[in-house]
């Protein structure tokens, strides 16, 4: 082969111009990589990194770390501005809070997120806003102050926030008492019902106060609360002893490389250890043990270890049946978006499951039946905020979200139980109160021609048959007489309910359709027929049921601040923001 000439060699190794597309694309790619992983920018000056890039592209000029830092900062500001614009166009926002402490207890951070329906892209979005560093003690006042700072930074007015989802920590709960008191006392034109809330130490809001636009201060994380019910299995002495025996056997396997290798050879699976802070981990542990029961027993015998007795395996199987619905609903409720509408049917489903379980196993496994009864009582107490309209802290949000989700609305509308029907009425009232007063006045002034046009579109609004998702929830279908039409949001609510009723008449001949509530409202409901209810429904359906999003954020921050870098604090928020909010 002929050797290249000097000219050919020169052009083959000629570096890219700084403004060339090839150079800029590669530099921006490196900046994104470093910005989202939290790696130190000085890595671009490492000899091995430079050598690697030279092998990949000899024409590429590796930038200095200062250029990378400037690009990361620019990228961070641009992404913040994009999200700020989306928040400005969002009609309603749900915020989420959680506190995370760095390993070694050297720093603590308050995570603040925002979930909303993006009307421009027609989809629900959940974004990380801030990681605010906290100093000890983590008081309610400090939490409230940091939240106010975050809302001001992002230009989110208080009346735009539907609710804030937090865990059940006393400091989180107290921070919203403080926030409510400060907000109401500083309101210049507050009405009489707001004065009642100021005098109430436990934030027990009045009927009107409870429904005011943006007045629901805090919603407890549903998944956290469900896990409190699940953890009752550790408090029933006979069941706790059985689980301790299972846990002891699992630990023996996990500490023995010989036993683990033998188990892998037999079934290609290992045992799972439960963790007190990990959701559904007890269910995962006993499920895996039952899955590899025969192989586990064989390996234990070969190792000379005691295994479980047949009667104990039977009890473990019944415990798995007890916890299975909780694990299934936990998985669906921990979604970052579009899960609030599942709360009420999931809770009713779990309550019916516990009731049926206690009746079915009362003679076979009394301890488990007793546990199921106690768990049912615990659910009644803990979830009165969502299911008991007489509770002082009752929130109609989950019922309202369920009501506007045709996939699960039947859970409420097809049940004759008085408590469930009361939930329906409260959901309708709350939706009606969410409509700004000026919109209601506009609706009441509709002309006769406009009313006829609206009624004419009713035939276009049909709801497909839906597959029942909650097998433990038994519902009776009452006959709901059609009432006279109104000329406001109530008319749209009635039209929506009538469409649901008509869809069930053809359910036997209709094919099952897998469609989310948001997809239904976007594709099957025109804005002419539901000018007010449609945007409300989209906003409610976008909401999450838990703060699992911030939990996942802290999994990212745990890696970013693993103690290998002293300056991790200064780049933690930026790196987590860029990584979590990257385009999908």
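^ Assign residues to that structure.
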């Amino acid at each position: 082969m002929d050797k290249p000439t000097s000219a050919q060699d020169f052009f083959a190794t000629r570096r890219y111009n700084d403004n060339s597309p090839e150079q800029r694309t590669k530099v921006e790619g490196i900046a994104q990589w470093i910005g989202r992983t939290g790696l130190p920018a000085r890595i671009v000056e490492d000899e091995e990194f430079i050598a690697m890039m030279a092998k990949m592209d000899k024409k590429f000029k590796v930038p200095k770390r200062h250029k990378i830092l400037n690009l990361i900062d620019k990228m961070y500001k641009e992404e913040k501005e994009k999200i700020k614009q989306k928040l400005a166009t969002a009609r309603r926002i749900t915020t989420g809070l959680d506190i995370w402490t760095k390993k070694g207890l050297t720093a603590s951070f308050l995570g603040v997120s925002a979930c909303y329906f993006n009307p421009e892209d027609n989809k629900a979005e959940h974004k990380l806003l801030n990681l605010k560093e906290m100093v000890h003690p983590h008081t309610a006042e400090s939490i409230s102050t940091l939240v106010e700072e975050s809302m001001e930074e992002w230009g989110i007015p208080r009346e735009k926030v539907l609710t804030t989802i937090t865990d059940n920590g006393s400091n989180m709960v107290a921070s919203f008492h403080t926030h409510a008191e400060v907000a109401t006392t500083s309101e210049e034109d507050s009405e009489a019902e707001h004065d009642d809330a100021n005098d109430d130490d436990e934030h027990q809001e009045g009927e009107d106060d409870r429904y005011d636009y943006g007045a629901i201060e805090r919603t407890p994380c549903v998944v956290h609360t469900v896990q409190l019910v699940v953890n009752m299995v550790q408090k029933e002495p006979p069941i706790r002893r059985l689980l301790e025996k299972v846990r002891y056997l699992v630990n023996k396997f996990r500490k023995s490389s010989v036993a683990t290798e033998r188990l892998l050879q037999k079934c290609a699976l290992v045992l799972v250890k439960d963790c007190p802070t990990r959701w559904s981990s007890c269910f995962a542990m006993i499920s895996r043990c039952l899955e590899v029961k025969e192989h586990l027993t064989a390996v234990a015998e070969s190792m000379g270890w005691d295994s479980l007795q047949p009667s104990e395996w039977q009890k473990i199987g019944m415990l798995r049946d007890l916890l299975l619905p909780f694990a299934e609903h936990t998985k669906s409720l921990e979604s970052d978006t579009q899960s609030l509408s599942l709360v009420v049917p999931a809770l009713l489903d779990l309550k019916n499951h516990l009731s049926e379980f206690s009746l079915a196993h009362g003679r076979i496994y009394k301890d488990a039946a007793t546990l199921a009864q106690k768990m049912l009582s615990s659910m009644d107490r803990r979830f009165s905020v969502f299911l008991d309209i007489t509770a002082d802290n009752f929130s109609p949000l989950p019922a309202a979200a369920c009501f506007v989700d045709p996939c699960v609305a039947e859970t409420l509308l097809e049940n004759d139980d008085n408590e469930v029907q009361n939930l329906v009425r409260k959901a309708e009232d709350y939706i009606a109160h969410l409509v700004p007063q000026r919109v209601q006045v506009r609706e009441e002034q509709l002309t006769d021609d406009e009313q006829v046009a609206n009624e004419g579109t009713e035939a276009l609004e049909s709801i497909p048959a839906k597959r029942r998702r909650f097998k433990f929830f038994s519902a009776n279908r009452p006959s709901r007489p059609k009432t006279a039409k109104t000329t406001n949001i109530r008319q749209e609510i009635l039209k929506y309910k009538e469409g649901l009723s008509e869809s069930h008449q053809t359910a036997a001949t209709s094919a099952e359709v897998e469609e989310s509530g948001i997809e239904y409202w976007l594709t099957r409901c025109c804005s002419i027929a539901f000018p007010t209810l449609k945007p409300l429904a989209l906003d409610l359906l976008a909401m999450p049921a838990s703060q699992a999003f911030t939990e996942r954020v802290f999994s990212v921050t745990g890696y970013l601040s693993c103690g290998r870098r002293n300056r991790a604090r200064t780049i933690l928020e930026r790196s987590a923001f860029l990584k979590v909010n990257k385009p999908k």
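Strands lie at 93-101, 108-118, 123-134, 161-166, 218-220.
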